[in-house]
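Supplementary Methods, section 5.1.

A reviewer requested that the exact input to the structure prediction be made available. We therefore reproduce it here, unchanged from the version used in the analyses.
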Amino acid sequence: MSEVTQAPALWQQLQACAQLLERILKGASATALLDAVPSALRPGVQAITYHVLRHLGQAQALRRALAPKTPKPAADALLLTALALMCVDDVPLYDAHTLVNQTSEAAKKHRATQALVPFLNGCLRRFLRERETLMAGLADDLQAQWNHPAWWVRRLQREQPERWAQVLTANNQAAPMTLRVNTRMLSREAYLAELAKVGLEAYAQGDAGLTLTRACPVHELPGFDQGWVSVQDAAAQLAAPLLLKDLHLSASSRVLDACAAPGGKTAHLLELSPAMVTALEVDAQRAQKIHNTLDRLKLQANVITADAAHTQSWWDGVLLDAILLDAPCTASGIVKRHPDVRWLRREADIEQLAAQQSRLLQALWPLLKVGGRLLYCTCSVFKAEGQDQTEAFLRHNTQARLLPSPGHLMPSIGADEGKLKDNQTHVHDGFYYALLEKVA
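The structure derived from this sequence is encoded token-by-token as follows.
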């Protein structure tokens, strides 16, 4: 008789989620932590963890009201997990009394929280009794109201006075699953037909994109292993077409993807152009992901592990026709997809990363031939990593000319904010694009 695999109990998922949250609050990445969760637990734990991160500001404010003295980290993380699940106004994920019971069960089974079961129980039952009053008390708490650090909210209010609320609202929603069809292998229409055969629905985005009406594991996508399609956000799909438009490259042309891992944009460049592409990545493990991406898509590039800013270590002295610089940044534009980012970043990070972006721009610009183009982009909504960076570069580089560019794209929820072109409604992450041409 085959063994029946039981679904994990809710208390197990709550316990695993709390352990992840404890480490995230100390600076660990949710993506890396989730990769280490046992496969049977991972789907449920990821869903709960992402929900908690999207409601963490509220949960922290409620915990302060319920327990003025912060409990030890393990108990605090478990209490925050339960409160984040209980404080939603719309349809809750779980029955409130079931959550109280299962949170107590999770606490009993972990040595670090066993002694605090009465405390946790008392906090959660008090929340149920006084919910209306406690929730009303959050009205003046900026972090609780928007579930982002207060500095993040204030900065957006200054920089995007008309759009800041829409950006924060979009950030608190789950990102859709968007695909890029490899049009070297088949058309978008043909791939839509393949999706229909397996019961998946999608709508068109941009030139070669499709957004699924419901996400699914990549192994369920028709032809994924054969390289028919890649997972890539709609805003990220703009990079390669923007850089390559009207360049008329040949097989002898040279293109650089300067910060290339995991290889999605490198692959897109190769799908759209016959040029020789060099992909740089400073981290060897992440460089391997570029190889994996290209192997699956049956594409070839010159992948080099090196720091793009240290050009003497990798550049052969031949001027480049095009450079894609997707620079390291705060990732403040992809919070829908990575809800831990908002809690991991500090405002001081923006200045440090902007300085790194400037160094990369200054190092790579001399490698570009006259008439060539450099596309500077970041997945950030902050002007220091976008508009301000470009304006400073143009002031100090008289050979640089700004071509028509999208500029700052704010995270969208499918309404007017999501219109990229042709009045079609799109849903996408936050991004910044500046296309620079070198003139004589």
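The chain has three domains: 10-143, 178-231, 240-438. These observations are discussed further in the main text.
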